[in-house]
Each structure stands twice: as C-alpha cells, then as structure tokens.
Amino acid sequence: MRHIVVENLSKNFRVAVRQPGLWGACRGLAARSYRTVQALDGVSFSIDAGELVGYIGPNGAGKSTTVKVLAGILVPDSGRCEVLGRVPWRERVATVQRIGAVFGQRTQLWWDLPVIESFDLLRDIYRVPAGAYARIRDELIELLDLAPLLDVPVRQLSLGQRMRCDLAASLLHSPSLLFLDEPTIGLDAVSKLAARDFVRRLNRERGVTVLLTTHDMDDIEALCERVILISKGQILSDGTLEALRAQVTPERWLIVDLLEPEQVVSDPDVTEVRRDGSRVVLRFDPRRVAAAELIARITARHAIHDLFVENPPIEEIIASLYSRERA
Amino acid sequence: MRAYWAIVSARFRMLLQYRAAAAAGFGTQLFWGLVRIMILEAFYRSTTAKQPMSLEQAIDYIWLGQAMLMMLPAWLDIEVTAMIRSGTVVYELLRPLDLYSLWFSRAVAARTAPTVLRAVPMFIAAGLFFGLRAPASPASAAAWLLAVLGALLLTCAISTLLTISLLWTISGEGIFQLTNTCMWIFSGMLVPLPLFPDWAQGALNVLPFRGLMDIPARLYSGNLSPGVAGALFLHQVLWAAGLILIGRLLLARGARRLVVQGG
C-alpha cells in the first residue's frame, strides 16, 4: 500500500526584495519588487507503508516545503499529492489525524505546562479513547524513559530530554506516518543513539512509515535503506545509499599505517586525501586498479604496520554532490 | 468540542500564573479609575444642565471599565505571535482541529483569565472604598451577566481577527494600534458614551465597540433598563457573528498564502 504519492509537485514563493540602504527603504514604500523562489520544481516520488526513507539535501533545497505540503500546511501550485489516500490540503483535518511530526528545532509541547499535561492535552486534541491513550502513553514513557520527566515543565528540560518527550508527543495518537525533521539536531552522542534506536524500533516493530529529513549522515546511515536526495527543488536521486554512493563516485579509500611516519607514498593510481602522523589516506578508482594489486604494490615498496580499504564517508559524498550542484 | 475546551482550560490555567502582572495592573487601574472619577466629579459639579447619566451611575461605569479592562481585545496573544514569528505555528496546523476555532479558543482563555485575576480584587476594593454600587436590581444583574457573555463573544471575535492579521503582517503592531485607538474611544473606556454629544450617539450605537464595555456597564448601573438587554445582546451577537465570518474568510485566504517563517 502506498502511504505517500507525489507527482510533479511544484511550489513557488514570492519574496519581497528589499533594496539596501535608506534610499532603497524609501523606494520600497512606494513600489515593492518581488522575486520568485521556486521551492519545488516537479518533485515526484512515492513511499510504501512501512518504509523508512531519508530525505536529504542542502539548506534551502525544498525539504521542509515538501514535508509541509505533505502535512497539508502548504498548498502547492501544481502537481498531485496523496497522503494516506487523501489530498492533504483538501482534507487537512482527516489527514493529520493519522500523521505525527517532530520538527527538531521546535517543540510541540506547551512551554509552561508539565510534560504529562501536554500529553493529556494532545489526547483531547486527537480524541484518543481513554483506554488506548493510557496504554500508548505508558508504553512510550517506558520506551523513552520519560518517567522522571513527566512533572517537569517543558521549559526546564534539556534538549535531549525535550526531544524524547517530543517524540512521545508525536506518537500518542498512533499515527501510521511520521515526519521527522532533523530529530537529532543539537543532541549529544548518547541522546542521538537513543533517538535513532527508538525510531528504528518504531519502524521495524510497529510498521510506522517514517520520512526522515536530516543533515546528519550518521542518522541516514544508521536508519535508512532508501534515500531521496533533493536540490534546488528537484529530485536528484532516489534509491539505496549504495546506489547513491555509486552514482556520485566509485572511488574507494586505502588507509595505510606506516612504520616510518616520514615516508611519502607515491603511486600513479592513488592521490593522497590526508595524512595524520603515520596514517595516510589514499584515494583510488577500483575501475582503474584492483585493490589487491594496489595493496601488493604498496606493501612491496613501504614498511607497513596496518592497512585497510573502505568506502569514503557519506558526508564526503554528499558534500561533493552538493558542491557539484552549486557549481 | 472537548478538544477546544481542553485548550481553553489549559491556557486559562497557564495564564492564571501571571499574578505579578495582575497585581501591578490592579494598582495602575485603581489609580486611573480614581483620576477619571475626579475629572468626572469636577465636570458634574461645574454644570447645572441635566446629564444623561447620574454621577453615581458614571462612577459605577468607570469602575466596571477598570475591573473588566482585560476583556478588551487590546493585547496580542503573545503565544500565537511568538509561534508565527518562529514558525512553530506549523504544529498548530498539524492538529486535526479547525484553525479558526483553535485560535478563538485561545482568545477565550486569553481574555477571561486575566479578567478574572483583576476583576475580583477590583470589585472588592471599588465596592468597599470607592463608590462602586451593587447592581441596580436583580434584573439588572442578570442583564449585566448576559451582556458580559455577549462582550466575551465580541472581544474574542475581534481578538481572533487580529491574530489572523498576523499571517500577513507578522508583527501586527500597526493594525493593533489602529484598532486600539478606535476601541478605546468608542467602547466608552475614555469617556462614558452617554456623555458624548447627541450627534455622535447614532454612530456609537451602531458600531460594535460599545458591546465590549458600554452595554454591560450601563445595564449594571441601571442607566439602561433590563428590558432592553435582549435587543442589546442581539446587537453584540450579530456583530460577533459578522466578525467571525470575516475572520473565517480571511483565514481561508491567509492559510493559502502562508509562508512558514524560518524554513
């Protein structure tokens, strides 16, 4: 079953342009000039029930706009969109009843209320039956270890604690579809791992469909089998992380720990990426030279303590892709 | 219905926490009430012409205005303002609720909680020491309560309309100052409306603003007989209904052109 279908979605924003300086400000009073920003330019994809999809792209690529259209908040200029079988902006109320969302930079909890009262309020807003509510709430409290936080006003929570509460708040009405917009932003390593682990379990055990927007490639690598990459309002790639890697660059990295730190490793088929003391990171193209052959050549010429081959980190791939797009 | 009621009650409880603001406001309003009464007394003493309102009624009128000051839609809903500025308003739109009713519910809480906090001490202080009398008759008291209900509907309709205007202006200061000036003069907060010249009475009677303050206060003091309460309530409700309709239309348009701040 398809949970999200998006076809050829476009959305423009008209932004008032302010001329710089006092003269510009005065002119702006009489005649405003506008600039059109194309936030979405023919976006198409579909997501099946139970998928966990990463939605990535540079700042301003159109990620948040897409999520807001899917959640019925924004009305697109053209294109077709169905979420859980409904057109979100036409049947906003019915659609959002089955959607949960966490925007990492904002909280949906009531700032001055204790956490548990925010939860109770959400129960009333989503009209969750009392019995189901008690069960789901207690489950979430246990899974996310919220018991010590329930009576604390939200403004006194740390960011990590708040994020756990926000995750719980987004799930009290048992949504079938969850939007996570940078859910790990600003979290420490332990909180990040906890949040990831929770999202993974939610997806695997409950079958909740998750669309994850993030800049944290570790989130993507840890959670998503499928990644959709958007830039300047257009989908650049849609597939597995491996396919994305292959599309961008076939290169591999050979990491060599030398016995003598000053040695220079030179070979026509490699270029040096960086060097930390005795560790040298080399880049090579496996289509030009086989890894085994390269290793044999280098071990023959240099005294080596250890050596291994790996894929370049996904950050590097994405960074190179983004900069290629900007150019 | 239960969802909206839950929001009213949560916001109400939250706003009851602002006791220091209420205490400070009480002091200020007491002071201004006394100043306005002194001015009115000087005016009544300097004239021999028969006024359309007795001095005692005018004093009731002033104290009721001071006590119910927070009923006026003269303050932005700080929570919604902050949400629109920061973009947190996305969460409001993510709820399976009618956005107009949601913001109207917020307005109900935002108008009633501070009013309760200030009106109770003001009624006690003004009643004991500064010449506020009890309602003219039990019928006047009932008429006053009905008019307060009408005023609440009206003030929430105006508040919500102003909140919706934030979708266009973001800050809202300009529109607020404009409506505030109108409201201050035409609701009777500055000078009791019966003391306005005769040629102004027609317009004052038609405008919605007297429903906020003037109608309840005059029913309370007996300046208007309880017999006209029904017609006056209708005036309040019709205006409220019209403003609610305008608000809904504007919101439907505003939501279409919504740009969420901050990505």
Keywords summarizing the entry:
heterodimer; A: 327 residues; alpha/beta; Rossmann fold; Alpha-Beta Plaits; 2 domains; six-stranded mixed beta sheet; four-stranded antiparallel beta sheet; 36% helix; globular; B: 263 residues; mainly alpha; 73% helix
Sum this structure up briefly:
The complex is a heterodimer of chains A (327) and B (263). Chain A is α/β, with parallel strands linked by helices and 327 residues long.
Q: What can you tell me about this protein's structure?
A:
The complex is a heterodimer of chains A (327) and B (263). Helix content of chain A is 36%, strand content 30%. In chain A, the strands form 3 sheets. In chain A, strands 5-6-7-3-8-9 form a 6-stranded mixed β-sheet, with helices on both faces. In chain A, strands 11-12-10-13 form a 4-stranded antiparallel β-sheet, covered by helices on one side. A 3-stranded antiparallel β-sheet of chain A has the order 2-1-4. Chain A has 11 helices and 13 strands. Chain A folds into 2 domains: 2-8 and 43-246, Rossmann fold, CATH 3.40.50; 250-311, Alpha-Beta Plaits (2-Layer Sandwich). Chain A has helices spanning 21-30, 63-70, 92-96, 115-126, 130-143, 159-169, 189-206, 217-223, 241-248, 291-301, 314-326; strands spanning 2-17, 33-48, 52-56, 78-83, 99-103, 177-181, 209-213, 226-231, 234-240, 252-258, 270-276, 279-284, 304-310. Chain A is of the alpha/beta class and 327 residues long. The two termini of chain A are 39 Å apart. Chain A is globular and about 70 Å long. Chain B is mostly helical and 263 residues long. Chain B has one domain (2-256). Chain B has 11 helices and no strands. Chain B has helices at residues 2-15, 19-46, 55-67, 78-86, 89-93, 99-129, 138-169, 173-186, 198-206, 214-221, 229-256. Chain B is globular, with a radius of gyration of 19 Å. The two termini of chain B are 32 Å apart. The mean pLDDT of chain B is 89.
